[in-house]
Amino acid sequence: MATGVVVKEVLPKSMIWISDDASGKYNHNTGLWNVGNINGGEKKTLTITTRVNGTGPFVNNVSVTGNEFDWNKTDNNDSVPIKVANASDLSVIKLTNQSVVDYRHLVKWSVIVKNNGPDKATGVIVEEILPEGLELINCTVTKGFYDNGLWSVCCLEKGEIQTMELICFVNKTGKLTNIVKIDGNEYDHNMSNNENNATVLVPKSSDLKVVKNVDNSNPNFGEIIQWTITVTNNGPDGSDDVLVIDELPEGLELVDYRCSSGNYGEGMWHIDYLDNGASESLVIRTIVKTLEDIENIAKVVPSQYDWDESNNRDNASVSVNPLADLSLIKLVNVSAANYLDLVKWTLIVSNNGPNDASGVFVYDVMPKGLKIVDAYGDGDYENSVWHIGDLANGQSKSLDIICKIISTGQFVNTASVWGDEMDPELDNNRDESNLFVYPASDLSITKTVSKYKYTVGDVVNFSIRLTNRGPDAAENVKVREIMDDSLKLLSFHASAGDFDKVNDVWSLDLLDAGQSAYLTVKAIAREAGIAKNSVVASSDNFDYDLSNNNDTVSLDIAEKQNPKQNPNVTPENNGYKHSDGEIRDYAQSILQTYKSGNPIMVIVLLFVFSLGAFYGNNILKKR
Predict the structure, then answer these.
(1) Per-residue model confidence as pLDDT tens digits over 484-496
(2) Could you tell me the end-to-end alpha-carbon distance of the chain, in angstroms, rounded to an integer?
(3) Which of 155, 301, 444, 453 fits a disulfide with 243 by CB distance 3.0 to 4.6 angstroms?
(4) Can you give the C-alpha Rg of the chain in angstroms?
(5) Which of 478, 437, 419, 455 is nearest to 555 (CA)?
(6) HSE-CB for 420 with a 13 A CA cutoff
(7) CA-to-CA distance for 582 and 574, rounded, in angstroms?
(8) 3-class secondary structure for 96-132?
(9) Residue 535 and residue 386: Cα distance in Å, rounded?
(10) Which 3 state secondary structure label does DSSP give 592?
């Protein structure tokens, strides 16, 4: 039996005592196991559980002693060599600069790696594969390089720390979790820190775009124009409670509206939901009530993050055409005139505003029967157009046109004014004046006598020609026959009309323009001397040339001579030949000679005289 047996088991520094089965007889601090007594052939075992706390080769020695003499000490000591492979504790930490990031913004991820030992780590690889929704923009590392999701660090000394930063573009909404893992060639005795992750929240997002159009960018005052507002959701998410603000500016009066979705009122268009990729439209019709330029703005207000606010507002503008109320007054200096008179027409053009007028002209075609003699005033008048040009607000200009009347009847002279600008009141752009021209006839009368010299008792033949030179038919024509007392009406013949032998007036109810009428009058010369016979023509019409309305012939009446005392009378003359060479009326001489003769003889003599008068050449006209 061996007594006082003690086993010395001092653990190497690389071994850390965990437990043993010596029931308290082993002191791991001193390494002594008090075994006590052991009978001959008896065996006792101590089992110690340790944790390796180091790497590399080391030896665990053990020895035993007792109270009795040990005759063989060669087996009192023993040792076991142990080799622990190199090891390192690689750890990784993943961080983000913000936990909530908006869609299409940038987020920065930081990756921190460390070797907690105990040995150098080699072949260190960090797996950093970005999830869907993250687009790498830039990467920086303090050691190694990053490519296609892998960060090759190479090696890390014990306690060494290296970092990597990644800048990413967020192109997806929702929760985005970025996981990172680290691994190396050496044994890693703590795998709990070899993986890490970080999560960012990307709230729902949509890009609401608004477009505003107008169907007429240059309307007139009072015109209806149509505005169209279109809102589109470019995503990526649907959008709730979309609000479009479109307050009509001053100068626009609402007529009606229609919208494809939602409701519109008081300048607000509400849409409950607008899906990704969807569009809705609002059409507003308005009346233009101003002359100023108008800018109509539409703005969409999203209820969630809008990643592109540059298209949340749009506008459309209109430039209202200038407005100028042009008015025209047409005057004439007389309401009634005579043929060939001059008449003055006056045109007065005014601009009643509110804007200046340009390109102003008046169209004034003179009726047929009026011949323009002169035109003067503001601007130029040619080819029936009065060119005024610019006319300021409140300004007036006038033009006088002088015309000669070359026709008769009723004339209506109409003129109208125009300009480049919109005219709100067209009723005053046109005016007219009336002119009445009395009927006119130029009566021309001529009077002739068969010869100049007569003897008392001779028959004098007068011929009167009456012509109407127009332009109108003459009505109620009167031709007055004025005879000297030395002449006495014997007979008359009229081609038209009636002759009043009591008052010596030739009357015609109507004589057409260009027509002539004739009157022949026979008279007896009663007294010697110079006799005048006149005619005067008139009618109810205006006669524009009175210089030819009368005519007068003169004749010389001599005292009667006895034919027996006149040697110049020859039968072939059918009358008496006087010393002055003039031929007296033979029939008259006979009548005077045979006042108390046989009437039958007188008739015979007159017949003979008529034959001679028909073939004779003694008819003369003297004035």
Answers:
(1) 899 999 999 999 9
(2) 209
(3) 301
(4) 71
(5) 455
(6) 13
(7) 12
(8) ECCCECCCCCEEEEEEEEEEEEECCEEEEEEEECCCC
(9) 50
(10) helix
| Res 562: pLDDT | 67
Rounded to whole angstroms, how far apart are CA atoms 328 and 158?
105
Low-confidence ranges of the chain (pLDDT < 50): 567-623
Instruction: Lay out the sheet containing 342-354: strands in order across.
Output: 324-332, 342-354, 396-405, 370-377
DSSP states of 468-514: EEEES-EEEEEEEEEE-TTEEEEEEEESSSEEETTTTEEEEEEE-TT
Please give the Cα distance from 317 to 35 (Å, whole number).
Answer: 107
Distance CA 157, CA 536 (A): 150
CA dist., res. 26 & res. 130, Å (int): 55
Q: In the numeric block, which tokens belong to residue 50?
A: 């340790």
- Its sign, for the CA torsion 481, 487, 493, 499, is positive
CA distances 266 to 246, 250, 311, Å, are: 9, 14, 23
Cβ pair 494, 474 in contact under 8 A = no
Element (H, E) at 602: helix 599-615
Rounded Cα–Cα distance for residues 452 and 443 (Å): 26
Q: Beta strands 106-118 and 121-128: pairing type?
A: unpaired
Strand 453-455 relative to strand 550-558: parallel, antiparallel, unpaired? parallel
Q: Is 427 helix (H, G, I), strand (E, B) or coil?
A: helix
Tokens of 340: 């060939």
* Strands, E assignment, 186-266: 195-202, 206-214, 224-236, 239-245, 252-259, 263-265
Q: Which residues, at least 6 apart from 68, have a Cβ–Cβ distance to it below 8 Å?
A: 2, 3
| Location of structure tokens 């660090």 | 153
pLDDT digits (tens, 9 = 90+) for 383-396: 999 999 999 999 99
Residue-by-residue DSSP string for 439-465:
-BEEEEEEEEES-SEEETTPEEEEEEE
Distance CA 22, CA 28 (A): 11
Angle between helices 586-593 and 599-615 (to 10 degrees): 160
pLDDT for position 489 = 93
- CB of 356 closer than 8 Å to CB of 392: yes
Alpha helices in 224-302 (DSSP H): none
What residues have CB less than 8 Å from 136, skipping those under 6 apart?
130, 166, 167, 168, 169
Sheet holding 239-245, edge to edge: 263-265, 268-274, 239-245, 294-301, 313-318
Q: Classify 423 in phi/psi space as left (phi over 0), alpha (psi -120 to 50) or beta.
A: beta
Vertex 77 angle, CA 71 and 82, to 5° = 165
What token pair was written down for 509?
């109810």
**613-619 contacts, C-beta under 8 A, 24 or more apart:** 613/574, 613/586, 613/587, 616/574, 616/583, 618/451, 618/573, 618/574, 618/575, 618/583, 619/450, 619/451
180 DSSP β-pair partners: 128, 196
Q: What is the pLDDT of residue 56?
A: 83
Per DSSP, the three-state class of 394 is coil
pTM of the model: 0.58
